[in-house]
Write a sequence for this structure.
């Protein structure tokens, strides 16, 4: 759908380019035809000049022939004169004899003088004609040379025009071919769109039919509703002022449209301001690289290098301000109310604060740079005073920017819950902001004034280069654009201060006044105002962006990987604590069993000693009883054995005669014996020992297993800790790469803008070049007309000369 939506725009662009090229082709054809006509005219002029040259050569030949004839005639006349003189001398000898000869000789002499005068006049006329002929021939040769040079220049320009025309025709052909291909594609798309349009027309007809039916249904419902309202509605609450105050107000749509329009105008002005600041910073960077040290003959200082670096980073601070405000403008809607409590200006405020901090960071470097300029040997006292004035104006500009930042942060904080101010103070904020903008205009104007005077003094120095002058002109132009922009911003804010200062427009039913206006008391009920505020707060909380979540598939995969490698850190910690508790219990049991074992060993040794003593006593009793067997009865023997036995055994065997069993008490406990033999007692104690030994072995094995498990779990925990550190490091690396990618993206965008500007400049240069070529063509035409007039004048002069000769 986006491609279909972009097709008309692309087609219009292609049609516009085609129309431009089509309009340029007849101009180039006309220029080419004019050049061809001029070349043909010059060729005709050359032919005429050749003809005139030939005529002049023929005239020269005729004049030389006539000169030769005259010279021959002069020679003959001189010979006749000599013969006449000889004859006159001879006649003078016979003067006395012939008196009539002097009269004849005087007459002849008078005739010779007339002839000499005529001859002299002819000679002078011949010399004058010869001189005029030489002058005309020299003029003619120079004129022919000039015409030949002009012909060569016109031929070269014609060749250039032919090349330009050929390249333009080739480009036009290529573009025409492309346009024809795109036209064919567009025709195909148009056909598909026409088919879709037909389908839509059919659907539209169906929709119109449905609409008619729906209108009929709604009309019936409306009639029914109006009838019910007229019959059953007791009163209209909008007529009563107190009851109308309880109605929920609706926002003023005109106020919203006006606010949106003014915010877009302000965004455009802020965009121009950021562009002007960016241009000022970039041209300042270029100037700091050139003056006072150019980096080639003299190395740049460390402060200057850092200053250039910070100035080069200006787009990282100016671009986000423009983008944040543009995003806020795009988020505005016609069906929502835009006031300070609902406007999300926090991103713009943060980015503007970063920009002001960047400007404050640059100020010490400006101070250091101006101090370096003052330290240059070519710096005069007046220039140092101008630098001081510029520094003072820059300091004032930084203070004004900080003031504007404070007001922007105050206005943006009204949308943050808990940081807002009462509505009557909003007017003070806007008036202060308007005054700060006017101060900004004055500060920028002062900076431009001081910088212009400083630059004019620097350009008078002998050390000022062309590159420095060009860069200073660019800086002055950027400051002039900032002055115009700040004046626009100040005029915009002062002209719309009443609109910004007035409270938000709410309309209650039956009236169109503000809810907070106090004319004859409150226009709406206080409960309605509280509900409205709660609604605005709820909407702002809803419009907050949700936190980014991990997709379900990615979460499942991460959970699988987590459980496949090892359990989570908390589970492992719990398991380790449980195993440590078990381990401590097992160690306690182990110690307890070891103590019991030692006690059992001691008891066993005591019992062994007792059994040995009893055996000795039994042997003694048997030996004694064998001696008194004959004298004493059986009962007395038993009494004697009981006397010899220890008191514990006597007490336990009290009923042995009657029942045949007794209780054997020892350190291990009480045991009822049924006349057990000695071998049975040994086997019983051996079994007890074996049982305790096996139990001890089992406990030692369990203890070893728990030790090994604890070691394994500690190793796994260490491995997981290392993996966590590696993951954190990789996260930091990825974040740095993301920052670099964003910086490269911003740099590429800047390069794209610069390339587009350069291409636009080249196009303007080409258009200016074509205009200059047209002017040259008109000049050549004027020169050719002048040459034609000169030729006509020379032809008329030659005709007069010929007439004079004749």
């Amino acid at each position: 759908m986006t491609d279909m939506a972009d097709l008309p725009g692309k087609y219009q662009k292609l049609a516009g380019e085609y129309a431009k090229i089509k309009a340029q082709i007849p101009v180039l054809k006309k220029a080419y035809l004019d050049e061809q006509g001029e070349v043909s005219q010059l060729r005709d002029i050359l032919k005429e000049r050749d003809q005139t040259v030939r005529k002049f050569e023929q005239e020269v030949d005729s004049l030389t022939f006539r000169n030769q004839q005259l010279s021959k005639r002069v020679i003959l006349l001189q010979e006749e004169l000599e013969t006449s003189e000889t004859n006159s001398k001879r006649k003078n000898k016979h003067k006395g004899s012939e008196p009539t000869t002097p009269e004849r000789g005087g007459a002849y002499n008078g005739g010779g003088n007339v002839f000499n005068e005529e001859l002299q006049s002819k000679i002078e006329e011949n010399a004058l004609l010869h001189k005029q002929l030489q002058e005309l021939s020299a003029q003619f040769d120079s004129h022919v040379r000039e015409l030949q040079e002009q012909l060569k220049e016109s031929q070269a320009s014609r060749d250039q025009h032919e090349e330009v025309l050929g390249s333009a025709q080739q480009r036009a052909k290529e573009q025409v071919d492309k346009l024809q291909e795109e036209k064919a594609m567009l025709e195909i798309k148009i056909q598909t769109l026409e088919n879709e349009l037909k389908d839509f027309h059919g659907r539209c007809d169906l929709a119109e039919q449905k609409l008619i039916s729906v209108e009929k249904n709604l009309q019936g419902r409306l009639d029914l509703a109006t009838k019910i309202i007229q019959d059953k509605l007791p009163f209209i609450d909008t007529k009563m002022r107190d009851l109308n105050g309880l109605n929920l107000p609706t926002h003023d749509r005109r106020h919203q449209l006006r606010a949106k329009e003014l915010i877009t105008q302000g965004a455009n002005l802020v965009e121009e301001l950021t562009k002007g600041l960016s241009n000022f910073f970039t041209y300042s960077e270029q100037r700091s690289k050139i003056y006072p040290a150019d980096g080639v003959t003299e190395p740049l200082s460390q402060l200057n290098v850092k200053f250039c670096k910070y100035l080069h980073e200006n787009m990282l601070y100016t671009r986000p301000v423009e983008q944040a405000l543009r995003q806020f403008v795009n988020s505005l809607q016609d069906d929502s109310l835009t006031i300070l409590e609902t406007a999300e200006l926090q991103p713009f405020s943060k980015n503007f604060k970063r920009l002001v901090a960047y400007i404050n960071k640059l100020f010490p470097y400006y101070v250091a740079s101006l101090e370096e300029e003052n330290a240059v040997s070519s710096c005069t006292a007046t220039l140092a005073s101008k630098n001081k004035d510029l520094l003072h104006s820059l300091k004032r500009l930084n203070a004004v920017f900080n003031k504007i930042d404070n007001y922007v942060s105050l206005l943006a904080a009204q949308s943050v819950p808990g940081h807002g101010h009462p509505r009557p103070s909003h007017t003070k904020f806007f008036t202060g902001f308007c005054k700060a903008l006017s101060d900004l205009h004055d500060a920028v104007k002062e900076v431009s004034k001081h910088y212009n005077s400083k630059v004019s003094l620097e350009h008078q120095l002998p050390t000022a280069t062309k590159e420095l002058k060009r860069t200073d002109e660019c800086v002055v132009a950027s400051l002039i654009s900032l002055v115009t922009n700040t004046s626009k911003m100040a005029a915009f804010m002062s002209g719309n201060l009443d609109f910004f200062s007035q409270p938000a427009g709410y309309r209650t039913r039956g009236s169109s006044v503000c809810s907070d206006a106090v004319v004859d008391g409150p226009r709406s009920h206080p409960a309605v105002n509280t509900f409205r505020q709660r609604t605005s707060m709820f909407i702002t909380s809803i419009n907050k962006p949700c936190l980014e979540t991990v997709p379900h598939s990615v979460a499942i995969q991460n959970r699988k990987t987590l459980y496949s490698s090892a359990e989570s850190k908390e589970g492992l910690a719990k398991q380790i604590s449980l195993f440590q508790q078990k381990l401590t219990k097992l160690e306690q049991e182990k110690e307890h069993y070891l103590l019991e074992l030692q006690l059992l060993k001691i008891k066993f040794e005591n019992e062994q000693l007792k059994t040995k003593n009893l055996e000795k006593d039994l042997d003694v009793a048997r030996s004694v009883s064998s001696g008194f067997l004959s004298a004493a009865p059986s009962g007395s023997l038993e009494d004697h054995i009981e006397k010899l036995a220890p008191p514990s055994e006597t007490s336990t065997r009290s009923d042995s005669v009657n029942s045949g069993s007794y209780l054997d008490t020892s350190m291990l406990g009480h045991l009822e014996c049924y006349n057990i033999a000695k071998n049975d007692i040994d086997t019983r104690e051996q079994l007890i020992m074996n049982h305790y030994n096996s139990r001890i072995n089992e406990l030692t094995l369990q203890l070893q297993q728990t030790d090994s498990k604890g070691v394994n779990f500690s190793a796994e925990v260490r491995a997981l800790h290392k993996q966590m550190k590696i993951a954190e490091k990789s996260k930091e690396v990825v974040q740095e790469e993301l920052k670099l990618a964003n910086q490269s993206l911003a740099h590429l965008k800047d390069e794209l803008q610069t390339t587009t500007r350069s291409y636009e400049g080249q196009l303007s240069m080409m258009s200016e070049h074509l205009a200059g070529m047209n002017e040259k063509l008109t000049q050549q035409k004027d020169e050719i007309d002048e040459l034609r007039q000169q030729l006509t004048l020379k032809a008329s002069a030659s005709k007069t000369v010929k007439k004079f000769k004749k």
Residues 603 and 667 are 6 Å apart (CA to CA). The longest strand covers residues 662-666. The chain is about 85% helix and 0% strand.
